[in-house]
Amino acid sequence: MNFRVKHATQYTYSEPVSLCRNEACLLIRETPWQHCISSELQIDPAPSDLRQRLDPFGNRINHFAIQHPHNKLVVTALSEVSVCSNPNILVSANQFSWETTKARLHREWSEEVFAALPFLYDSPFAQRSPQLEAYARTSFPPDRPLGEATFDLMQRIYHEFKYDPGFSTISTPLSKVLSERRGVCQDFAHLGVACLRSIGLAARYVSGYIETLPPAGQERLVGADASHAWFSVYVADLGWVDFDPTNNKLLSDQHITVAWGRDFSDVSPLRGVALGGGKHKVSVSVDVARQPAGLVG
Length: 297
What we know:
By secondary structure, this protein is α+β, with helices and mostly antiparallel strands.
């Protein structure tokens, strides 16, 4: 599946900003299941300094500074990407029990396992707890295949938690998400990550987009899409398998991966500091448009 993606963030200030420095994690990465044909950042006003680096997880991070007064900042990421899916991924993830992967994570020192270790431990927004371990254990009885168990965890989050855009912020603790049984995709991704870590498995937070289709007979609304998040679990001898608890789906050719990390703090789309500005307003517009085969690139 081919897509064009436009992600625009606009800051409007009540007073001029004299200087700002920012970090953007908006450029789509290359993965085994998606090919990034092009991905570029447009910044208005033009920055005086713009640099790109790869972070420890292989994400494309841009740093930029604007050193002259401005009342508005617009950061737009434009990308073209081709995505495929692996319909047999869950079968492959069921070759071993979840305890087998757990044991190998804690006793093997292969390059693959070493790369997974940062996703085994607590991070700012996805910390282990006895409550999360208890919630996960329902899906992870002894000797259950890892893919089947994680799929069950994803389904439980989907059915037992209500999607509520007004419930949480980035600072809402997972304990409240768990007790209130509500949240948004970011919360459900953090919940899945923390549940898996609480039973000794490696899990990572994935940021990206998912194609949204209009109801039958209605035109697609440009700019009505939004950023999305899900989680993935490390499977021995296979690698990472992604699960979307908000939509109760495995990774499909409608999912577009931008970045992954320990949690949202590693892959925040845009953050920075500014001198001046007074009060400000932020607006975000995301458009994921499917392209006919052969028109992208």
